[in-house]
Every structure is written in C-alpha cells, then in structure tokens.
Design goal:
The protein is of the alpha/beta class. Helix content is about 40%, strand content about 15%. The chain has one domain: 3-Layer(aba) Sandwich (Arginase, Chain A), CATH 3.40.800. A hairpin with a 2-residue loop joins strand 3 and strand 4. The protein binds zinc ion. The site of zinc ion has 7 residues, from loops.
Amino acid sequence: MSTGIVRDPRFNDHFMGPGHVECPERLEAIADILDAGLDFSLDRIEARPASSDEIAYIHAPEYIDFLSHTRGRAHVQLDPDTATSSLSFDAALLAAGGTIEAADFVLAGPGRNAFALVRPPGHHAERGQAKGFCLFNNVAIAAEHLVRKRGVRRILIADWDVHHGNGTQNAFYSRNDILFFSTHRFPFYPGSGRWDEIGAGEGRGYTVNVPLSAGKTDGDYLFIYRNILGPIARAFEPEFILVSAGFDIFAGDPLGGMNVSLEGFAGLASELVTVAEDSCGGRLLLVLEGGYHIEGQALAVKDVLRRLAGARSALEIRADISITTHKEISPVIDIQRRFWPL
Ligand SMILES: [Zn+2]
C-alpha cells in the first residue's frame, strides 16, 4: 500500500479577506500536524498548474478567461461569499492540477490511494460561475481527466461535505459513467440535493442524494455508507473512487451543525478503503473541500491519512441510526431501489 499526498504552500496565496472562514490557516494547521511527525509514511505528489484545456473539461472558456483577469488584482468579489486575491487564479489552477496529478498517482496502482490537500475547494463551482468558496471544481476536473485521458470507464464520487456538491452533480447529471453520491445537511446551503434529484436521461440512478437534518453522528454516517453507498458501489463496480472530503461535518465546525468525531472520520475513511479494495484495487483519492474548525480538521485529516496508509482501528463504531435518520433515508432507499440492490 502506498499513500500519496498533495501539499503546496502556494495554495495559501489564495486569500478571500480578513475573517473569512475559508482561510490559509486551514492548510497551515494541517501542515503543522503532519510536520510534527507521523507513525506512517506518505509519498509526496508534486502539484502543477492545470492547463486551460484541462479546466475546460468542466468550465466554460469565458469563465476561465474572466477568472484569469483577477490575476494581480488585490480583491475581486465573485459572489456574496467568494472572492479572489492577486494569486487566487494561480492557486486554483494548482489545486486542479494537483488533483489531476494525484489521480494519476493512484491510477498507477493497485495498492495506491491519496489525499489532495488543496485550496480553494471545488464542489460548488459551476460551469460558468464561482460559488460557495469554490473557483474550479477540482474533483470534477480530475474525474473528466480520468475518463478522457486515461480511459477509466466508471467513477464513483462520494461527497461527505456538509454542503451539497451542486457543481459536481450538475457536471454529471445526465451521465451513467460517473456516479455522484452525496450526504449533506438539508435544507441548507446551496439549496440543492433533494432525495428525488436522481439524475436525468441515461444518468437516472447515477445521482444519489441523501439529505439529512442537523446533528448526524458517526453511527448515522457509518450506517448510510455501509447500507446505501456500499451496495450501490458494489453493483456499479467503479474503476476509481473520488471523494469530496469536507470536514465541516465535524462536531465542532462553526458552519456545519453535524456531530461527527475524529473516530467518525477515520471510520468513514476505512469504509471507503474497504469499498475501493473490493471494487477497484484500492484506487481511492480524497480531495479536501470545506472544514472550518481549524484544529479539529487538522486532527481529522491526520486520522484519515493513517487509515489510508493501512491502519486498522481498535475501536469499532456501531453503525446505528436514530428513528429520525431512518425516516430521512427511507425515501432515498425507496427511490434508489429502482436502480440498485438496496
Ligand atoms: Zn462545505
């Protein structure tokens, strides 16, 4: 087993303004923890800027051109919560390119996985629009790279960020080669992700939304991953698994309102490692999305990396759900049963 990591101080050239929660300190705290010493080993993957052609797998050329003009400008407000600084465009190219490099590292497996610790995040970015702290959709761009340049036939994207990954969903809504699975708080920002958003045309059944109320625990997430994601993934047989890893479901996150502990993140990572081993030679790439409890996120990332690197837990989390959660996931199971063995 070889676990790769993408880290680069240039991601922190992206700065959206004083007091913004999506801040350079997020990656700095992770770097501090990783540099303090690890009881497992990681392989460094060098990031590089994505080309315009690669960004254009997902984004409109006019949008890329528009964003390139923010270069050198101190502050450009793109939407109510998203802005650029003078080097944000370059950081965003590097985040997408670093994610592509990580995808190639993992694809060269079996026995390889990776975590791309990038900023800015990506899953809210739309084809022609920045949104929700996101400039380019790193995960969607890497998925298209795998399909177009590497001939990968089926990709599973799992998104555990507390917010719905609208950009990723919209990029692949009519496709049956890229399956998008999202757990998210609902109703909540950005407003999409109802259980009956299941894909369109050939893509029906290849979008799986699990909208949840606040306060979900380790047991809730584990249950959903084992009993909904697991069976779907085993039937879909992905050749590669991408994860939009958002740490804003952490119990102490200032935005999320969920109740996942450090052990919960490790449990989710283990679950995905197992699904990847069962279906695609362990090929699994996590990509950082949100997460605003600086210290908690850093600790959680380290625990997730340890699991990617092969550690097993002494502590078994019970995949156990409340009646509320049972009621919330019932319509998801009912509608997805038309497509999957649930
Ligand atoms: Zn989020």
